[in-house]
Each structure stands twice: as C-alpha cells, then as structure tokens.
Amino acid sequence: MLDAATFWQTIRECLRPRGDVTGTADGLAMAPYIRESRRIRAQTTITDSITAKSVTPSITAAGKVYDGNTNATISTCTLTGVVSPDTTGCQASAAAADNQFDNKNVGSRTVTANNIQLTNNALGNYVLSTTTATTSASITPATLTITAVAPDA
Known about the structure:
By secondary structure, the protein is mainly beta. It is 12% helix and 41% strand. The chain is built from two helices and eleven strands. The chain has helices spanning 4-14, 32-38; strands at residues 19-26, 43-50, 53-62, 64-65, 73-80, 89-91, 99-101, 107-113, 117-119, 126-128, 133-140. A four-stranded mixed sheet has the order 4-11-8-7, with no helix packed on it. A three-stranded mixed sheet has the order 5-3-10, with no helix packed on it. A two-stranded antiparallel sheet has the order 1-2.
C-alpha cells in the first residue's frame, strides 16, 4: 500500500520538470474514516503542478590595479539551492557596464554584478531569486614610473 505522503514525495523527487503532473495511486492507503467520507475508489488520480525551484547566485570578483574606472571582472558565479545531480550554474553578464566597483578609488570595494543568467543542464527547473549579486574586491595603487631628463647644458 502507498500512503499519500509517500506518493507526493515520490512524485516531487522523480518528476522535477515544470508543468502539470498527473499521478495514479492504486489502492491509496488512507484512514477508513477519510476513505468513507470522500468515497475514494480503489484507483485515485491526483493532479499537481510542479514549479521551478528558486536558487540564489553568489559571485567572486578579481581585484585590480587602479585604472581610473569602475569596471570589474567577475571571476566566478555559483548557485545555492541546486538539487544534486543537476549542474545548473550561473554566469555574470559580459557587458562591462553590468559589473562594477562601487567607486574607482584605491581600497576594499563592493562589486556588483547585474544581469546574471542561468547556465547548464536542467535550467528549466530553476529560477533565479535575483539577477544581481555583490562581493568585495580591492583596487590597489598604480605604480608610477618617473623618468628624469637632464637639462641641456
């Protein structure tokens, strides 16, 4: 006999694509008073909708030498909440305007990546909780080269 909780757990674990799912439970085990009050037959069809799972992106950013602008390079993008064995991942936008330090000056800075997207297999099964992520990275001082020129004598 298959109880209702086990039935739904099995359906949700085995059939993760989005959309409507219809399952049939032969001889669904229920308490006698529920079976009588609902007049359940020996075969019951149950319909449910499975929605995409929300996952959260996080990033790391490369530090850089001061260059007078706020453009940042995103090193990695990872997701929290992906179900094994799926390998769905994420990537930051390649557009410089989407990946920025909070200011151009030397120091530890906040980096923001915008327009993050899902990648890899099973991506129809997931939705991003946000398309923006932040991290910290440093801008270090630029090295100055000074060249002395002797005056004409």
